[in-house]
Amino acid sequence: MEKRKSLDNLSQNYHHHHQKKFETRKSLEIQINKEKEEKYLNQLIEDQKRIKSPIKTELKGIITSNTIRVNEFKQNSPPTNKAFKDFSLIQFQNESFRDYMEDRFSILTSFPNDQCKALFAIFDGHGGSSVSQFLCQNFISTFLKISQKFEVKNYEKIFQKCFITLDEEIKKIPGSNQMGSTATVILITKETDQILGSQKIIYCANIGDTNCELFGKCDCKRISYEHRCSDTMEEKRIKKSNGSIINGRVGGVISVTRSFGDFEMREFGVISEPNINKVNVNFNEKYFLIMATDGIWDFISEEDIFFNTMNNNDSMNVCKNIVNKAKDNGSTDNMTCMVINL
């Protein structure tokens, strides 16, 4: 689904200054094409040389959209890592409807000095791919850098700080006033409870409408929070921020209420503060974590996925079935689907 639209049909309640800004955005969005995208990415590389802070610890086990040049792949967990069994990923541009791919992903299968953790992230860009590309290249290193400053790993605070830090850096990207990205990030780790003993813990931090669900043997549970204008709580928050919902979009422009970038919409209530959820899972039970962009979730039901996972033990089969079902049901958006076998 298109997250951003031009601003011709804004309410007359907006004064002339806002209308002029909206018309400027429309002109910019029309001009964005492959040549402009290349220009943005070249500038982004130059910006990164200046703003990126290297992590002292050598990182291994990083997989990103930049390092994997295939549309689908499956990988087992490293032998020493107990966070997950394997994962599969499929990306589909939908070339008949989309000129280029704005989805990106980042994966860390081996944490420095800790083999019981793994991190999976999907970023769905809109208005261009510069913001999602930046997140793809910088989320993991930023998360680890911030995490090193916490003696006691409070991952809720680490995620909050990470999202704020990255959003500030995104301001330096040319065009980030009119483009942005949703994000869903999963951290899998192990914690010990005095009563429950050792358990696998899933932290989910997200903004926008890229979602994650946990599918077990007998049930399913959405562990992300969908930040859309149709959500009652988000609508109230937007209106409190002097924004308005017009035709299901903030100010008639953007369909998500939280995102990285989109700085021109901040005065209308769009923010980058993530929802953070913590879920405990049993080591001995079968679970699939399914992360996907809205190009999939908007065209497939939880019931379809649940029946797909019930009698299926192969993450790639599950992944293919989900993407194919979304295609058959008429999705015209970029699609990214990640299935993590716990």
Structure description:
By secondary structure, this protein is α+β, with helices and mostly antiparallel strands. It has a single domain, classed as PPM-type phosphatase domain (Phosphatase 2c, domain 1, 4-Layer Sandwich), CATH 3.60.40.10. The protein contains 8 helices and 15 strands. The protein has helices at residues 16-31, 34-51, 130-147, 155-170, 232-240, 294-297, 302-310, 315-328, and strands spanning 62-64, 72-76, 86-92, 103-108, 118-126, 180-193, 197-207, 211-215, 220-222, 245-246, 249-250, 260-261, 275-281, 288-292, 335-341. Strands 1, 4, 5, 6, 7, 12 and 13 form a 7-stranded antiparallel β-sheet that branches. Strands 2-3-15-14-8-9 form a 6-stranded antiparallel β-sheet. It has a two-stranded antiparallel ribbon with strand order 10-11. α3 crosses α4. It is globular, with a radius of gyration of 20 Å. The relative contact order is 0.16.
Main traits of this protein?
342 residues, alpha+beta, Phosphatase 2c, domain 1, 7-stranded antiparallel sheet
| CATH class division | Alpha Beta
Helix content: 25-40%
Summed over residues and divided by their number, the pLDDT gives a mean of 85
Largest sheet: 7 strands, antiparallel
- Helical run tally: 8
Shape: globular
The percentage of residues in β strands lies in: 25-35%
In the CATH hierarchy, the architecture is 4-Layer Sandwich
CATH H-level superfamily:
PPM-type phosphatase domain
**Tally of strands:** 15
SSE pattern, N- to C-terminal: HHEEEEEHHEEEEHEEEEEHHHE
C-alpha-based Rg, rounded: 20 Å
Number of domains: 1
Class by SSE composition: alpha+beta
Low-confidence stretches: 7-24, 47-58
